[in-house]
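Wed. Picked up where I left off yesterday with Phosphatidate cytidylyltransferase, mitochondrial. The coffee machine is broken again, so keeping this brief.
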Amino acid sequence: MALPSSAVKFRRILAHFPQELSLAFAYGSGVFQQAGSSTAATENNMLDFVFAVDDSTTWHAMNLSKNRNHYSCLKYFGTKSICNIQNCGAGIYYNTLVPCNGRVIKYGVISTDALIEDLLRWKTLYVAGRLQKPVKILAQNENVKLQEALTSNLKSAVMAAFLMLPESFSEEDLYMKIAGLSYCGDFRMLIGEDKSKVMNIVKPNMIHFQKLYSHILQDSPQVIYKHQLGKLEIDKSPEGQFAQLMALPSTLQQKITSLKDSPGKNRDVEEILLQVAHDPDCRFVVHQEVNILESVLYIVVSESIVFKYIWLEMGSGIKADD
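Structure written out below (tokens, as returned):
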């Protein structure tokens, strides 16, 4: 469930930052209560934000003027260096452990173009994955391409989940699968991070998942949505699965086709996806490729973090830009 009395708190925090934002949202356990956490404990958690901006260089310049202490030693090297770091890995730059308005916050800055690309293609699924779960939208401009991309990301999550689920399942099963998309290949789930994390996210927040997805389910020709019973049935025929495969983001389609395309054949995407749709193991093929996509993401993000630390260590020898 969303925590109470948050609107004023978030507005006050957002007021500390330059207002040239195409999208701003808060996410995570500091915003939506998770199973096993008390309200009091949750309200003391770090607050996580993402800010999408049309011009990263200009936004960071304004933010350096307002909040110079938020930045690491990169502040001494100027906005160009900050943007170079932002463009590594998942395309997002984070300032973390920032005291703000009586809370500790972390905020990431991503360009609007990079966000749209991730939402449409799942290039990294880093921010797109967060937006497949309930978030608190704090600001959004009238960028039509961004709004369409946000909707497309939700529809893609539904199609991917359909392909990995059996013919009949509960609404909770669907949201568990969707919430788990961005954790499928996460090595942290194998080395100690709470493996019930997905369940802890979904169970207390069913109403928020329903707000995100109910209109998509009601409009989809692929599913019979028995809302009152919380049950769904999907078309698992080859024709139904082909339609679902064709609705996936291009990055995931490419992963699936590269797995199934024989060396030297170079068949087109539709031909290969039609073959996958007729495969009795279609759901397992898709699940495998989502795992690989996520594994690559966490390698990319980890390498980006390592690079940033190396860059910072070498910072004293780097010339500052204006």
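Quick read: The longest helix spans residues 282-313.
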